[in-house]
Amino acid sequence: MEKNKSVNHHAAEGESHSTWNGDFGFGASDRRFAYSRQASFHQSQEPPHTPISIISNDSMKPLLSRSVSSIDIPPAVYPVEEYEKVFSEKGKDSAEKFSVLLFVLSVFRVVRSGSRPMKRLFVMIWLNVAYSTAELSIGLFTGRVGLVSDAFHLTFGCGLLTFSLFAMVASRKKPDRVYTYGYKRLEVLSAFTNALFLLFMSFSLAVEALHAFIQDESEHKHYLIVSAVTNLLVNLIGVWFFRNYARVNLVYRKAEDMNYHSVCLHVLADSIRSAGLILASWFLSLGVKNAEVLCLGLVSVAVFMLVMPLFRTSGGILLQIAPPSISSSALGKCCRQITAREDVLEVSQARFWELVPGQVVGSLSIQVKEGMDDRPVLQFVHGLYHELGIQDLTVETNIA
């Protein structure tokens, strides 16, 4: 005979029903949950009767007749035609305008009440949007393909920065019934997206350097110096905004740190790219051969080395690999200590991963000997793994 028990860390500490109500959004004075649990035997003992229309007439015709399967709705009480007329004509246009306006206002409200990095990122996005719009307009008006191409590159980068801002805003939401772990991983996904874009930019710069090596460099001597200098100044403002995260190997204590670091690397990589183009143009004006190949190659390697640690860390979290902050030997030692107990037969399905930076989640299954109490085992297991920093632990006990 086998009995399965699933024990969570929060349940093991004996939380009351008020804690469950707080987790699902029900306060102490909230009547929704209490109303849904009212017992049926408090109802009156009167026999069921057919509901009577509230319209005063002689026939007193019931609203719901037992002999028919339809419900008669008095037109005087519920003007259906007038309701449909109003909402069919005005509802569609007003709803669309109201939804767009509400979304814009909500974004401004959240950014205004947000943290300082969130406000700085909002300013950075608007600076890039203004610059890319001006560059695209000038490129289309003058017929310069280089300006148009660079404007599309900046527009795509603005989209990624906007996604980072959206992740900052959405991650503030509390866990719900659909996303039980919350929305913190959006910031990890945003960091991974930025890192992937920067790797693509590094690859495109390497291809451009190879193209410049194959072709005649005389066609590439006239660089758009004004555009490169302006882009460099805009990106340097962003680097100054996020200067605290301007490191290659940064220790992430929270999910916000990873997102801020990705934004800093994004604007820093764009700054290096602009500086490389300016330096290549200056070397070509001095008559240095293969200057474009050398500068673009160095920029490609620098961007790749700059973003690769972030790419590995964010990708590892999304793939749910073992937490790098806890060594595998420490996890194995914990399993051996649990197995060494006299009331434990086997430990299996031990899985540990990092939900977001700074939050490790784990689960394992323990087979307890028949006739033994599993509560001391659960207390020992939770205390053992909490010392390693695993606060969210789920333990399944099987009693043989």
TrEMBL record:
The chain crosses the membrane at residues 121-145, 151-170, 191-214, 220-242, 263-285, 291-311. Residues 121-319 form the Cation efflux protein transmembrane domain. GO terms for biological process: intracellular zinc ion homeostasis. The keyword Transport applies. GO terms for molecular function: zinc ion transmembrane transporter activity. One of its GO terms (cellular component) is Golgi apparatus. Pfam families: Cation_efflux. InterPro entries: Cation_efflux (IPR002524), Cation_efflux_TM (IPR058533), Cation_efflux_TMD_sf (IPR027469), Msc2-like (IPR045316). It comes from the Eukaryota. This is Cation efflux protein transmembrane domain-containing protein. It comes from Liquidambar formosana (Formosan gum).
